[in-house]
Amino acid sequence: MRPSSRGLAAVVAALSATALLAPPAAAAPTDTVHDYLQRHRESVGSPGLAYAVVRDDRVVSQDTFGTDGDGAPVTPRTAFLLGSVAKPFAGLAVAQLVEAGRLDVDAPVVDTLPWFRLADRKVSDRITTEHLLTHTSGISARDGVRFGDRFDNADGAVERAVRALAEAEPAGPPGGTFRYSSANYLVLGALVEQVSGASYADYLRQHVLAPLRMRDAVVDEATARERIPPGHRLTFDRPWRFDPGYDESGVPYGYLGGSLTDLTNFAIAQLNGGTFAGTEVLSAEATARTHEGRVETSSGSYGYGWRTRDLDGVRTVHHSGATAGYMSSLVLVPEQDLAVIVLHNAHSMARDVQQYEAAFNVVRLLQGATTHDVGADPVLAYGPWILLGLAAVVIALLVRTALRKGPRSVLRTSIWSGAALLSAVAAGWILPRQFGAGLREVMLWAPDMAIGIVAVLVACALTLGTHLTLWLRHIRTS
Questions:
Q1: Using CA atoms, how far apart are residues 8 and 28, in angstroms rounded to an integer?
Q2: How many helical (H) and strand (E) elements, i.e. helices and strands, does the chain have?
Q3: pLDDT at 284
Q4: Cα 368 to Cα 350: distance, rounded to the nearest angstrom
Q5: pTM higher than 0.85 for the full model?
């Protein structure tokens, strides 16, 4: 799913778990949280936002702000796309099958999915369910982006997406380095389908969403068209209504939809040992196991669909997620029976950290601490403007050259043409790879950066064409 913000991923996670050092204090007045989130919404440019605070088995505070992509007021029943907050749901589904004795987390995936493979079968044959859950399969972050966002809504979409991974070159051996990759959870979706005999969406409906009374949840294209309004992408720091479509192949890792009410029910179950309103979706022991950090990351640890971190005895269990148009965060503080949910109907890679940090700032306010405010990522915020400026300079120099009807020498033509080619390669190939993606993914996730890249490419193409034309014309007239 989300590209790098994946150079940003480590920063996001590192910032997310800081400043939870104070012991539990009396809850801050609701208007303190309300005022903070109102200011936050305005600072990050989200047209709509919803939040809730959960303690034990009840919602103690919630509110909504602004409008959805259709211009209607956001309510607790407004559906949002949840992005990678879908991963804790996939972890829960897998944990249910493990608890029922139908799946072994330590067994190779190929024991259940004989057709599963990466480009190197010696690697993929050794990948276990545990490796997928903890992002230690060896599948790269880049391939998680490259094979995601397929917008495939036909029957068998999850299996087709997993079969496409046969082209993915492993980045390392299974059980080695933590590499956050949504492709891992894509494969988990296929495992759930194979073991249960149902589509991933149907399994989730029957065994997770219905017991948790998640009545606004979305796991298919038809329901998405009815319930999910368009989100927004921040382009040059302004929100623009955006609806890229739904992706049923992506439900296991990011295209799960739901409302604030849905997520409060899910959070209550997580805080109450897997039980909601008297219905157990997972045992307390198994729920606790999903929350355990099992592999160290640069900013804490990762469990079964959850990020975790301990700070001076205060343990947080959390996940965030984004799609092109939405951003969500869910933070649990299990030892305090506390959960905070913040949902945005806009996303910007430049403001990803700011958006993710909001839920943690609410926790800080509830702890009686001060908020930890961060700004936009300067590279992602100013990069598009720099690229547009570069394109403008190149065009200005090109006009100057054309008016002078030069250069005419082979050396000058070679220098200008070479510079144009190098700039085009840097803008069109090297820069997108810094996102852990290609130009297609940059266009989806960072449209302002894509506009800047395309402007540079056009300027370079015009420069190359003009200088070669002038030189050839000079040769003919000499």
A1: 31
A2: 18, 14
A3: 98
A4: 29
A5: yes
Sheet strands (E) in 324-398: 326-333, 338-344
Cis geometry, peptide bond prior to residue 108 (ω within 30 degrees of 0): no
Query: Rounded to an integer, what distance in angstroms lies between the CA atom of residue 348 and that of residue 184?
Result: 24
- Show the beta-strand stretches assigned E in 289-412: 295-297, 300-302, 307-311, 314-323, 326-333, 338-344
Average pLDDT of the chain, as a whole number? 87
The average pLDDT across 360-375 equals: 89
DSSP 28-72: PPHHHHHHHHHHHHHHHT-SEEEEEEEETTEEEEEEEEEB-TTSP
Tens of pLDDT, residues 82-119 = 999 999 999 999 999 999 999 999 999 999 999 999 99
What would the pLDDT profile of 170-180 be if each residue is shown by its tens digit? 999 999 999 99
Q: Is the dihedral of CA 181, 183, 187, 188 positive or negative?
A: positive
Residues in the chain: 478
> For residue 477, what are the CA distances in angstroms to 316, 415, 471?
75, 22, 10
Reading the block at residue 406, the tokens are 């030069």
Count of other CB atoms within 10 angstroms of residue 370:
10
Q: How confident is the model at residue 298 (pLDDT cuts 50, 70, 90)?
A: confident
| Three-state helix/strand/coil letters over 225-246 | HHHCCCEEEEECCEEEEECCCC
Per DSSP (E only), the strands in 83-179 are none
Structure confidence at residue 205 (pLDDT): 98
Scanning the structure block, which residue is given the tokens 């903890």?
A: 134
Which of helix, strand or coil describes residue 269? helix
Q: What b/e string do you get for 153-186 counting C-beta neighbours within 10 Å, with b at 16 or more?
A: beeebbbebbebbeebebbebbeeeebbbbbbbb
In whole angstroms, how far apart are CA 340 and each of 21, 76, 241, 309, 400?
17, 14, 27, 16, 58
